[in-house]
Amino acid sequence: MERTVGIDAIGVHVPGYTLPLDDLARARGVPVEKVRIGLGAHEMAVAPPWEDAVTLGANAALRLLADGSLAAEEVGLLLVATETAVDHAKPVGIFLHELLGLPASCRTVELKHACYGGTAGLVLAASWLRSGEAGGRKALVVATDIARYEVGSSAEFTQGAGAAALAVAEAPRLLALDPASGVYARNVYDFWRPLDRREALVDGKFSVDCYLDALDGALADWRTRGGTAADLTTAVAALLYHTPFPKMAQKAHARLVAHELARLGHSEVDVDAEAARSFAALVEPSLGVSRLVGNTYTASLYLCLAWLLEREGRRLEGRRLGLFSYGSGCCAEFFTARPVPGSAARAARIGAQALLQARRLLTVPEYEEFARAGAGAERPAEGGAGFCHLAGIEDHKRRYARSWEAA
Ligand code: HMG
């Protein structure tokens, strides 16, 4: 019999600073409505110099250890997905391995495929569990990133930073994954970051087209691999999309609706009206975090999931969710999952909303100062006991500390 595997618990982290995008729009001479309505974005998280992919990921995972959702000694596989790693050879995961106190027998790997890496980690962890190799242990999948574009570029409004840590287990207490999954991969130059650059390069409009084509491809593959033949907009209680900016999820939803109407032969139905009708019920509830945090690359889809389950877990228990993951370059995947009965109380403890409420608003000059500074070892002006931060870089070696330790 197929083992039931999925997400047992989710920990999230976002930096303690946020920039209102109305202020950035005014500073750049861009109409406020273009960002607020055209992109659907309101604020973006800004990583201070003492936060990087390691600290974001560690702080997300430490929440799972701190609230008892996961014990370090249970973890047999650590997969860290990031496209903003801190070293070309030394993986982010090995820093996390130490900071989280994971066992020496825990296999530790960094994964990269742009924003798709988090989903790659989740499906590989699920396969490891289904194969029986886990032997009762759990996997920890950490998706962690800082989205950076050139200051003053049109993509500047789609930056952000954050991390999600997923404890993946048999008989999960949060979300059971359905076995069917549809994949689409194709070599395209829509978004890239050469090895010597901190900021990403992007062919913005082309990247939107690549994302939408990949959605079509992943849905078509999903149907050949056991995905339901029913209309997806009625078969699921929510649809979550990789969200570089909220308007992208709206475009994706319109494409999914068009895909379904064409497949079911409803050529007479107005696609835009139909998409607008189902968007509010199926998609909007997961987007609040993206509007306030921005793009978090690998973590984006899982922050949306955490936000949705934390706020609407009771309504969604036992009902199916559809999830679409896209990574530029590109690789995409569509799959479904169900919040398990009894999961709502657990989901309500995720704490994403409290994290967002505790952030300090930055001014545009303060944000520009952080952007210029790059990684540094200043003492953090945020974080409670146990907060993990970058404590120093000497001889190209990074040193991390928790807030009760001397830097
Ligand atoms: P842009 O040139 O700033 O904006 O680029 P635009 O001219 O396309 O306008 C954006 C929207 O605002 C349009 O709406 C305008 O009509 C509207 P749409 O037609 O698309 O529905 N607009 C207004 N609305 C109200 N009032 C106004 C007004 N003016 C215009 N006054 C772009 C936007 C997203 C391309 C840019 O920000 C960018 O390049 N961002 C980065 C790339 C990106 O996020 N791509 C998304 C797909 S690829 C992906 O998701 C992968 C990624 O996460 C990376 C990874 O995988 O690792 C990026």
Ligand roster: 3-hydroxy-3-methylglutaryl-coenzyme A
N to C succession of SSEs: EEHHEHEHEHEEEEEHHEHHHHEEHHEHEE
Named CATH architecture: 3-Layer(aba) Sandwich
CATH domain fold name? Peroxisomal Thiolase, Chain A, domain 1
Structural class: alpha/beta
Helix content: 25-40%
Number of domains: 1
From the structure provided, what is the oligomeric state, counting identical versus distinct chains? single chain
Radius of gyration: 20 Å
How many H/I helices? 14
Unreliable stretches: none
Strand content: 15-25%
DSSP strand tally:
16
Specify the CATH homologous superfamily.
Answer: Thiolase/Chalcone synthase
Describe the biggest sheet? 9 strands, mixed
The first-level CATH class name: Alpha Beta
Terminal CA distance: 51 Å
Average pLDDT confidence is: 95
Question: Could you explain how this protein is built, in words?
Answer:
The N and C termini lie far apart (51 Å). Helices cover 37% and strands 24% of the residues. The chain has helices at 21-28, 32-39, 53-66, 92-100, 117-131, 204-224, 232-235, 246-263, 271-282, 288-293, 300-316, 344-347, 352-357, 364-373, and strands spanning 5-13, 17-20, 43-45, 75-81, 107-111, 138-147, 160-170, 175-185, 191-192, 201-202, 238-241, 321-327, 331-339, 360-361, 388-394, 397-402. The longest helix has 21 residues, at 204-224. The chain has a single domain (5-403), classed as 3-Layer(aba) Sandwich (Peroxisomal Thiolase, Chain A, domain 1). Helix 3 packs parallel to helix 4 (92-100) and helix 8 (246-263) crosses helix 9 (271-282). It is α/β, with parallel strands linked by helices and 407 residues long. It is globular. The mean pLDDT is 95. The strands form 4 sheets. It has a 9-stranded mixed β-sheet with strand order 5-4-6-7-1-8-13-12-11, with helices on both faces. The chain has a 3-stranded mixed β-sheet with strand order 3-2-14. The structure holds 3-hydroxy-3-methylglutaryl-coenzyme A. 3-hydroxy-3-methylglutaryl-coenzyme A binds next to helix 2, helix 6, helix 8 and strand 12.
